[in-house]
Specification:
Elements (H helix, E strand, L loop, with lengths): L1 H15 L10 H4 L19 H13 L14 E4 L1 H9 L11 H6 L2 E3 L2 E5 L7 E5 L5 E13 L4 H4 L3 E11 L8 E5 H8 L7
Parallel strand pairs: 1-3
Antiparallel strand pairs: 1-4, 2-3, 4-7, 5-6
Length: 199
């Protein structure tokens, strides 16, 4: 029970840490919004689906560079709200009612082209995180430990405290911030839809 609570808090810090009061800067904090001047603006006629949103973000990350001679970023993880995941993947069917993404309902995850798409209840509805998480560095310098002991008058009251903790550093190099995109799904769709002017 404690390990689950510990891991959940750590996951939240990795995603949403503010960078203040001892918290690391989370992936959504270091991320940029979808870059509108990518040449993809207005490139999709009709309705834009979720895979086009994800692939456009992957492409934007792949083609972003600080210098002309550096390697490409390869997005490997997508996080979205569970309701958005259900609507766009679990409930997605073809014209005959067959699921388009069987893995979504079986395993609550979709893996396409080496990119893992997972529901995450901490992501607000309507938002999406697309990232090369290999660029998010986590250094565990005090491993997970559990301590049991008395505090103040607990010995008299026959109570004890169970403490579960670990310590870690987490950071993203300034040049690697281009490997993270966090934006509204609707904003990306608007940019991609045919007739949308490029910024």
């Amino acid at each position: 029970y404690l390990r689950k609570k510990h891991d959940r808090k750590k996951d939240k810090l990795v995603l949403f840490g503010t960078g203040t009061s001892g918290e690391p800067q989370g992936a959504t904090v270091v991320a940029t919004t979808f870059p509108t001047g990518t040449g993809m603006a207005g490139s999709i006629p009709g309705d834009v689906n979720i895979m086009q949103v994800i692939n456009s973000a992957i492409t934007a990350i792949f083609t972003r560079h600080n210098y002309t001679d550096e390697g490409n970023y390869m997005a490997n993880n997508v996080r979205m709200n569970p309701v958005d995941f259900f609507t766009n993947f679990v409930a997605a069917v073809d014209g005959e009612g067959r699921p388009l993404y069987p893995m979504a309902s079986l395993f609550n995850v979709v893996v396409i082209g080496g990119v893992t798409i997972v529901p995450d209840e901490d992501i607000p509805a309507g938002k999406i995180l697309v990232a090369d998480l290999s660029k998010y560095n986590v250094l565990n310098y005090v491993p997970y430990t559990v301590k049991i002991g008395w505090v103040n008058e607990d010995f008299i009251k026959n109570q004890f405290v169970i403490l579960a903790e670990s310590r870690f550093h987490a950071f993203v190099k300034n040049l690697d911030r281009l490997a993270f995109i966090y934006d509204d799904i609707s904003a990306i769709k608007t940019n991609l839809k045919s007739g949308t002017p490029s910024a």
